[in-house]
Design a protein that fits this description.
Elements (H helix, E strand, L loop, with lengths): L4 E6 L5 H13 L3 E6 L10 H6 L7 E2 L7 H19 L3 E5 L3 H13 L3 E4 L11 H12 L2 E4 L2 H9 L7 E3 L3 H15 L2 H5 L6 E3 L4 H4 L2 H15 L4 E4 L2 H10 L7 E3 L4 H9 L3 E4 L2 H10 L3 E3 L8 H4 L3 E3 L6 H7 L16 H22 L1
Parallel strand pairs: 1-2, 1-4, 2-3, 4-5, 5-6, 6-7, 8-9, 8-11, 9-10, 11-12, 12-13
Length: 366
């Protein structure tokens, strides 16, 4: 019997720490693997550095789709990925998270009749103004195997009518990468290099709901300026956010702005922070795993477990951000949610192998 063949599709910064533990676990089981990078993010700090930091070999193919509107980017990915999937014919197409690459690949794989597995299935913000929410819904409807990071995601999929046989709770693969890289991150010395200390507030912003609305963006900037008068604030800035700040004529005052930084550097910064101000789903999870207070500048989250069992707090009104930062404290004792134990990648591979056997047995009887 030939080894199971996995074709992993990634395309943007949040995908890479989700791919890495699955790729390592599959390699340990002797599975054949093919990594396709759509090139949705193409800056080295947003992409290639993750492969280095997380010990993944370079992708087998890079489609280099680049930036564009959601429709343009999705269309480019679909057009360029179809011949690759048709040629490779993997036993599983494995997609991650909620970016455009994930939804586009899911559509093509389904039309080609290729088995599709979604890592991080079942997350919902219930806010359809978020492009990521549409991507999540489309991918989960098309996937043959729904690999969930938390029990609440299982319940969501059941309410939406997904078959029980397709839902498998595996835990949070992103936290696998955190466990894998944390020691190296702390040894990087990045915090010391930029003068960050235990009082430092780390900021990231990129969601359209925050950065594309000039009024709201300026309210957030005003809060960050006030916070930076009291304590150090470090802001690794996404290129798109930087452009929006420039367009709005925003002045960040004493906020320490950095260009995009690599995974290990960001992990070192977050792990030692007093608190994190963000609109990132991944950072909500990482701060929960680390026991670092997180203030999410959004009205909702697709990761409610980070609020109910974690250190995350939603701050929908930027005018409340200064007070929220002042009140933030690390918990004295902390335990991460179930399944956030560094073994999720192994459980993903177990599920892929088990489900592949079921599919194979069915095909033999048809």
């Amino acid at each position: 019997m030939t080894a199971l063949k996995l074709l992993h599709v990634v395309g943007a910064r949040p995908n890479f720490p989700k791919l890495a533990p699955v790729h390592r676990a599959a390699a340990a089981r002797g599975l054949e693997q093919f990594v396709l990078h759509t090139g949705q993010h193409y800056d080295d700090s947003l992409s290639a550095a993750f492969f280095r930091d997380l010990g993944i070999s370079e992708p087998d193919v890079n489609l280099a789709v680049g930036s564009g509107t959601h429709a343009v980017q999705t269309a480019r990915i679909m057009e360029r990925i179809e011949p690759v999937l048709a040629e490779q014919r993997p036993d599983w197409v494995v997609v991650y998270g909620d970016v455009n690459s994930t939804a586009a690949t899911s559509l093509v794989a389904a039309k080609l009749g290729l088995p599709l597995a979604h890592v991080e299935a079942g997350l919902r913000s219930y806010d359809r103004s978020m492009p990521e929410e549409i991507n999540r819904m489309v991918t989960d409807r098309l996937a043959d195997l729904l690999l969930t990071p938390s029990p609440d995601a299982d319940e969501t999929l059941r309410r939406e009518g997904e078959p029980e046989s397709e839902i498998v709770f595996v835990g949070n693969v992103m936290i696998d990468s955190l466990h894998f890289a944390l020691a190296a991150a702390r040894q990087s010395g990045f915090r010391s290099k930029i003068g960050a200390d235990d009082c430092t507030i780390v900021v990231t912003l990129h969601r359209p709901s925050n950065v594309d609305d000039p009024r709201r963006l300026l309210e957030i900037v005003s809060a960050l300026r006030e916070i930076a008068e009291e304590r150090p604030v470090v802001f690794p800035i996404h290129p798109r956010t930087e452009q929006r700040l420039r367009d709005a004529g925003a002045c960040l005052g004493r906020v320490h702005v950095l260009q995009p930084i690599a995974y290990l550097e960001m992990l070192d910064l977050v792990a030692g922070a007093a608190a994190v101000v963000t609109d990132s789903g991944g950072l909500q999870e990482e701060t929960t795993a680390l026991g670092v207070p997180c203030l999410t500048v959004r009205e909702n989250t697709e990761r409610p477990i980070t609020v109910t069992e974690g250190t995350n707090r939603l701050v929908p009104d930027p005018r409340e951000l200064v007070a929220a930062v002042r009140a933030a404290r690390r918990p004295e004792t902390w335990a991460a949610p179930a399944g956030w134990d560094g073994r999720a990648g192994e459980r993903v591979v177990d599920a892929l192998l088990a489900r592949a056997r079921v599919v194979g047995e069915r095909s033999l009887t048809q």
